[in-house]
Each structure stands twice: as structure tokens, then as C-alpha cells.
Amino acid sequence: MFDKTEYMRRYYANRRKNGICTACGKPVEESRKGKAVCGICRSIRYVKRKEHWKRAPKSYAKVLVKNAEYLHARRLDRIAKGLCPECGRPNKTALRLCPDCHARQLEYEREYYARKHMRKMPIDTNGGKRNE
Ligand SMILES: [Zn+2]
Ligand SMILES: [Zn+2]
User: In this structure, is residue 130 part of a structural domain?
Assistant: First the structure.
């Protein structure tokens, strides 16, 4: 009987041995030598996997929700105790975050908007504003 699994296994092993991408059949880049797929196919796979998560098994969505709930509860708990919701250290400032986390947050936002700008994506001018 024709064993397809065995055939595919040998087929892939052979390609891999010859430095051929098992997905598209093009030579694998020198820098990726020994890998099963070329750089392009690898990134395609990566995107596809992300798409897969987006279409999302319900179980994964549940994990995300649980995680978000946990983080939210932890934040509220920390704020109630007068701690920084980010790092959990005592926060004596009037700011939501402690000075360290506040600075990090600002830095992050600056980078985020700079990246957004670089990609020439429309910037939501209201969404980025904060009441401070
Ligand atoms: Zn490829
Ligand atoms: Zn902090």
C-alpha cells in the first residue's frame, strides 16, 4: 500500500537536506541553512498563525478574557491600596502611575505614535489625548 505519510516524510527530509524550502520549493537562504522553510515562508506561516488565533478557538478567547479580568482586578486592588497599578510599588504621587511607570508609559506612547506615523496610518487625534 502507498504510505503517504512516509512518502511526505521522505520528501520533506530530502528537500531539507538539499536546502530547499519544504513549503515553496525555493532554496533556503544561506543564513537559514538547516531550516525547513525559507524566510518568506516562515513569515507567511507566522502571519497565518496569527490569523488563526484571531479567528480564534473559543478556549483561547476565554483564556484572554480570564487574563484580562485578572489583570483588571489586580489593577483595581493595587489602586485601592495606593500602589502603582503597573508595578505594585507604593505610589505617593497624584498620577495614576508611579513616576517610573508614568515615564515608561509616556515613552511607550511616544514610540507608538511615531511608529504609527511612520506607517502613515491615520492618527486618531482624540483617542491619543489624555486628561492630565
Ligand atoms: Zn519558502
Ligand atoms: Zn509603577
Answer: no
Residue 112 has pLDDT above 70, yes or no: yes
18-34 residue pLDDT tens: 889 988 888 998 888 88
Ligand 2 center from residue 49 Cα (angstroms) = 34
Please tell me the distance between residue 54's alpha carbon and the centre of ligand 1 in angstroms: 24
Contact at 8 Å (CB) between 98 and 84?
yes
Which residues are found with C-beta within 5 Å of the ion, ligand 2?
A: 84, 86-87, 98, 101
Overall number of domains in the chain: 2
Name the pTM for this structure.
0.41
Q: Are residues 17 and 71 in the same domain?
A: no
Alpha-carbon Rg for the chain in angstroms? 24
Range of the domain at 44: 1-55
How far apart CA 79 and CA 71 sit, in angstroms, is 12
Q: What's the 63 CA to ligand 2 centre distance in angstroms?
A: 26
